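B., you asked whether I could sanity-check this one before it goes into the benchmark set. Here's the sequence:
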Amino acid sequence: MSADAAVPFTATVRESASGPVVEATGELDYESAPRLGAVLRRVLAVRPAPPVLVVDLGAMTFCDSAGLNTLLQTRFDAERQGTELRVGRPTDIVTRVLEMTGTDQVFAVDSDVPAVVPRTRAD
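And here's what the prediction gave me:
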């Protein structure tokens, strides 16, 4: 993909009834993987630890080995504290990477993600 067509990477945390959802958009590569890793570590640092953490990949346009490694490391870190890491809505590109590397057998993959919990307004 040309630099002009690159989609900037973002990682946004939102809450659902089942726990946090980290929505990743754009290209997950060598440059952006550390940013995703930092967001995921912050989410996992919350106490009590969430029972489930979903990484929503429905807006990913690219994923390389650095991105995949970040997801695998997060899965390991989550497992150590009793949190289940789930991958939600992987795009065709991400699905292909998971299948080619055999990690589709490692990650719990959801075709959907939990609905966001509406924020209550404080008056």
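One thing to flag: The chain has a mean pLDDT of 90. Otherwise nothing jumped out at me.
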